[in-house]
Amino acid sequence: MIVPEPKLILVDTPLKSESPQPLGDLRQVRVDEYFRSMELSANSQRAYRRALTRFTKWTDKTWHLLKHQDLDRYKAYLKELELSNATICQELATLKSFFNWLTIKDYISKDPTLTLTKPKIKPPTPQELSNEEVESLFAALEKRGWHRFRDTALLRVLEHGLRASEVTALNIKDYDGKRLHIVEAKRDSVGFVPLLSEARMAIDTYLQWREAEGMDVEETSALFLSHSNKSKGNRLTYDGLYGIVKDLVEIAGLEKCHPHRLRHTLATNLALKGMDSMLARRITRHRSEASYQRYSERGLDLKAEEQFWQLFDSAEVES
User: Fold this and answer.
1) Structural domain range at position 242
2) For residues 66 and 103, what is the distance between their CA atoms, to the nearest angstrom?
3) Whether 30 and 77 share a structural domain
4) What are the tens digits of pLDDT across the range 120-168?
5) Cβ atoms < 10 Å from Cβ of 162
6) What distance in Å separates the CA atoms of residue 260 and residue 115, rounded to the nearest whole number?
7) What is the torsion angle, in degrees rounded to the nearest 10, for the CA atoms of residue 102, residue 104, residue 109 and residue 111?
């Protein structure tokens, strides 16, 4: 009996280093690619990453396996967390943007968020500051020592309706002596903001002080610098700006006051003074009439109340 010679059979067994990536890592590849391809502000990117991280912790399905029923269940899950409607809308808007991108890139065949609806939210009433509250903030600057040169300019700029992130993104070259050029803004709401004389004077004084102190005044440097020991001379950060306003608020003895309330104050005052909403939106850089509508309504409320008291106060005096 002839015994055949043994044959060597090669089996393609992957090495350990060639083993598939964990599911989470594979999904993260697309997430990272999404952020590289999207032009988002630092704040938006943080919010989007937070939303996508929450979603990937909720499900372990790959992107192409997700169905619209999964998204409906996730929406219900967000409600169970007792998040505000505004937060849920932000989370779902992030998912809509991400899955739309996956579809456009042909990573998935169908967008599971197409039938997803966001809860309706009523825009919050503007929280404008009274004239007395604004005056108390500026009075608090007297107790800021040598920081007051920067802080005065900072407060004057915020008074013109800029968002905190827009202020910290400003460079010296964005100030032409009469207006500010907003080149980095939320939802591309860029544009020019004319400055009142007090603001121009405050910025000029601050830059002169910086030059005298030997600090950077190159056109490409940040308009506002940090005075913190750890980051002195670096660009003022978003958190740093909030810290400055918090200190001023404490000195002034105000409650529930944050930088964005100065934006509310400007928008409401423009409406109160009867400025055409289309023109006012150019100043505040609201992209739509709907987004500015709450300030128009607030201005009408304040104007109506003002005339109410004028009518009845004078009638009481006459009687």
Assistant:
1) 131-302
2) 12
3) yes
4) 877 677 889 999 999 999 999 999 999 999 999 999 999 999 999 999 9
5) 24
6) 34
7) 70
The pLDDT confidence band at residue 315, using thresholds 50, 70 and 90, is low
pTM of structure: 0.67
Torsion (CA) 251, 252, 255, 257 in degrees, nearest 10: -100
Asked if 180 and 278 sit in the same domain, the reply is: yes
CA distances, 242 to each of 167, 257, 260 (Å): 11, 10, 10
Q: Which of 250, 247, 244, 214 is nearest to 227 (CA)?
A: 244
Q: Is 139 helix (H, G, I), strand (E, B) or coil?
A: helix
Claim to verify: residue 65 and residue 170 sit in the same structural domain: no
Give me the pLDDT at residue 13, please: 39
- Both tokens assigned to 123: 């825009």
- Provide the CATH number for the domain around residue 265: 1.10.443.10
Q: What is the DSSP string of 164-212?
A: HHHHHH-BGGGB-SSEEEE-S-GGG--EEEE--HHHHHHHHHHHHHHHH
- Residue 125's nearest CA partner among 304, 291, 273, 294 is 294
What's phi and psi for 56, nearest 5 deg?
-70, -25
Alpha helix positions (H), 2-84: 23-37, 42-58, 68-80
Helix 277-284 with 260-272: angle, nearest 10 deg: 160
- Residues 225 and 273 grouped into a single domain: yes
The pair of three-digit structure tokens given for residue 302, joined into one six-digit string: 């304040």
Element (H, E) at 299: helix 289-318
- Mean pLDDT is lowest, of 71-80, 178-187, 246-255, 308-317, for 308-317
CB atoms within 10 A of CB 246: 13
Q: Determine the Cα–Cα distance for residues 75 and 118; give it in Å rounded to an integer.
A: 9
Instruction: Provide the CB-side half-sphere exposure for 275 (13 A, CA).
Output: 19
